[in-house]
Amino acid sequence: MRVLIVGAGIAGCALFHRLKSHTIDVDIIEKSTVLTNEGAAICLPANAMIELDKLGMSDTIIKCAHQVNSIEYALANGETLAKASLMEAPLSKGPFVALKRDELMRILRAGIADKIQLHTWPTDIQQTENGVFVTLNHGPSKTYDLVVAADGINSQVRQMVQPDTSLLKHKVTNWRFIAPAPSDNFQPVYYVGNTTLFMIYPISKDEVYCYAHVTDTAKIYYDMPTKEALYSLFANYTAPVLHCLNTMPSSEHIIRGELKSVMKTDSVFQGVVLIGDALHGCPPSLQQGAGMSLEDVNCLADQVINHLDNLPQALSNYEKARGARIAWTVNESNKIIKLAGLGESFIGRLVRNFILRRKGPANVVGWRKLLADD
Ligand SMILES: Cc1cc2nc3c(=O)[nH]c(=O)nc-3n(C[C@H](O)[C@H](O)[C@H](O)COP(=O)(O)OP(=O)(O)OC[C@H]3O[C@@H](n4cnc5c(N)ncnc54)[C@H](O)[C@@H]3O)c2cc1C
To answer: Is the CB of 174 under 6 A from ligand 1?
Structure first.
């Protein structure tokens, strides 16, 4: 079988590891000219760790990562709204960890970096009787039995196989950076303001991953110099947030972005299959980007390896196995952004805070469902 993986991010690299050891001829292409690792850090909930375990990588990850055992939501002044332990079933099925994103990518690319064809992307994809005919920006065209789109939320392959792949824009601007820990044994806290949120999540005993966002309908903060925007939004927040602001790195080490979601979650188009953010890119409210991507990878790899002589069956099984869980995750991640957005009005804040106090941290509620269903 001939497989082309488009994109060497989390999903593409993990799938290459799963397929390379079988009687499958796998090519992996990456449009970047160098292997960079955008993103400060990454939080991996238990389901991501369970999937990394299937890839034989969880022990290596644990050595570079920091395990957390509770999640708190608080107001901007530090008053607790909700807190939950991560040590109780079903959350205790695996560890919740966080680490620098470049560490995760180093582990995922170990032993395969020289196989990744850089500065390479498809310029045309045609489904034919003999397979999927792929024209690349350079080099010979080739026919594959399977093309896997692992090329992220702005997937070019998705645009080639699916009409109308526009993305939902949440009008939320975000920033990510790493800062020194505000205190010893810091556990993750999400501080919620009126239209803002500031998350502090430890990635080692000395460092934390900071994620900040604001509802930014007129793109005022997106266009402002980074530090000026962060100070103007979070200067009245509680001490740990001020500590992170006062110790944040220079602006070039702070990543700014906008939250977007895919609007459709169809995964199979004859010989082309979508995985990772190409399939379910959405806001990081449930921190499920890696978890869902790795679930896609293991599900697709199992199906392909078990049905080497019946690819349509493998893809149909993959579609059925992943469909509902992915649609739920995208929808729930969007809902959490809407819940945070309620803070804009006084009544909305009352409703938001009541829901959080009553149900607990919104991401933990989602993780419980995902781990119970797993
Ligand atoms: C602000 C923010 C915070 C996040 N925090 C978390 C978190 O804490 N935990 C978590 O699990 N997830 C998080 N995520 C989501 C997570 O980053 C993604 O889900 C994950 O990176 C998806 O991996 P992927 O391999 O599908 O896509 P990507 O990581 O986007 O990789 C796609 C790769 O394909 C390449 N590519 C693109 N187009 C082409 C092309 N045409 N041809 C060839 N190559 C191409 C790209 O260069 C890239 O290397 C966050 C996302 C955001 C935006």
So the answer is: yes
